[in-house]
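So, can you check?
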Amino acid sequence: MSNPINIAIDAMGGENSPYKVIKGIEIHSSNTNNINYNIYGDQKIIEPLLKKSNIKSKIYNITHTENYIKDTDSPLTAAKKGKNSSMWLAVESLKNQESDAIVSAGNTGALFVIAKLNLKMIERIEKPALSALWPNKIGMNVVLDLGANIECNEKNLVDFSLMGSALHKSLFENEMSKVALLNIGSEELKGNNIIKNTYQILNEKKNSLFEFKGYIEGNKIMDGDVNVIVTDGFTGNVALKTAEGTANFITSELKKTMNSSLLGKLSAILNIKNLKKFKNKLDPRLYNGAILLGLDKPVIKSHGSTDEIGFANSLKVSEKIIKGKLIEKIKKNII
């Protein structure tokens, strides 16, 4: 048997924690094996939840601390006061080779700062990037950067292409990674100078990790023609929030329409199977788990407002990228 994977978990971060965290571990552990969970947080609260769960005692360890980072803390405040916090201790366990990855649903800015203070950047990577999964018509996209860097140069965007492709290959090993730059048009001459220069670099320097497919417009992201979409953090974050808002609007309006009349309710019953598929396609919990790329250890950010299903999916992402040797793939292919 191979060595077990050790996942560090900040049990106190996010809404309804540590309850959803422990329930998420329970869901994840029931669908996998050879995983150990290093749990950081208030033992007085966590232990009773673990005892009520079906999680085997041999697969987890609790490191007690009553300190945790609040959602209202600034990154600087969190860094100053956080050396004994659940988030800091969880990240530090990667630095000390006690864990292979960390998952936290806590304060995003604090997690990034604490991770950068404790972990090294991968050599020749200048900036980290926040990436996430985004559904398309035929499968899944990796999209980055989603907010870690407001401004990026050509080197950064090339690095993001490599890191995003390595992540995609780690998660979907049988698929070819196809990279596109998010732009205002698909023509080669469109876009600002940084985008156009990056296009030239990626077009000229072939890489075995991915196939460069040029530009992609925002309305084509979900077509499935490409699966790694690269942009700066400002544009990526706006695109992500717009997509999330649109998905929520469509789902709520469809639900309202289906419940507005007897005919609508009857139609919903008759189409329950198809409606469930539709709902799952747009359910953000099933794609939960943003990854901070560029550091020498995997750092996974679960959405703070997600439930136990979403948290379990972030653990699944963590497991897959460790098994898929994400960091090794980035180091091997970085220019």
Summary: The chain has a mean pLDDT of 89. The domain at 1-125+294-325 is CATH 3.40.718.10 (Isopropylmalate Dehydrogenase). Residues 262 and 268 are 10 Å apart (CA to CA).
